[in-house]
Specification:
With 198 residues, this protein is mostly helical. It is built from three helices and no strands.
């Protein structure tokens, strides 16, 4: 037969209160954690949606630059053919040397722009994945080291997302501006050279 221990009434209430209190405390912790996870998922869904929208805009912008670059290359090729034909008709040392330098420089500039476009294309393609990864790292840092609430974390993540988008968009715009400048400069130089040929 087992021996039962007698526990005074006050102590029994304390034990029951402690066990129930511990259970309620755990239940409250679980509810808070579930609420935090839901808010985090909502923030993640919003960020994913924003990343998708931004990615689409970046892709469209780089495609526009690519099309513009392709048109530029085609027009340069036509101008080069015209220039070569004119040089064959009017063979002058000074103009021929200038034309060779101009053609060579234009080709080098086209190669540089082509490389920049390819680099930006790659960056745009990788942007959603690298951005999401960076945002996950930022979230972890904000949660652990700074103890931020979900609302603050959401704002910080969205702010970083906007900043990253603006940085890449600015690179594309700069490339587009450089392409436009090259087009204007080379058109002007070709016009001058053709005027000298006549």
């Amino acid at each position: 037969m087992s021996r039962s221990r007698w526990v005074p009434g006050g102590l029994t209430k304390t034990i029951i209160t402690t066990v129930v209190g511990y259970g309620v405390e755990k239940l409250v912790e679980m509810i808070i954690e579930e609420s935090r996870r839901r808010k985090e998922k909502k923030t993640t869904r919003v960020l994913e949606c924003k990343i998708d929208e931004a990615f689409q805009e970046l892709r469209e912008k780089i495609e526009t630059v690519q099309e513009y670059f392709k048109e530029f290359q085609e027009s340069r090729q036509k101008e080069h053919q015209l220039l070569r034909a004119e040089l064959e008709k009017n063979q002058g040392k000074k103009e021929e040397n200038f034309a060779r330098v101009l053609l060579s420089r234009t080709e080098k500039e086209i190669q540089v722009l082509s490389k920049r476009i390819k680099t930006l294309q790659k960056e745009v393609q990788e942007w959603p994945e690298t951005t999401m990864y960076e945002l996950e790292l930022l979230r972890a840092d904000l949660e652990k080291n700074q103890g931020k609430e979900e609302k603050e974390i959401s704002r910080a993540l969205l702010s970083r997302l906007i900043w990253k988008f603006q940085q890449l968009f600015k690179k594309i715009e700069t490339l587009e501006e450089d392409l436009e400048e090259l087009l204007k400069t080379s058109q002007h130089e070709f016009q001058l050279l053709r005027a000298d040929q006549k």
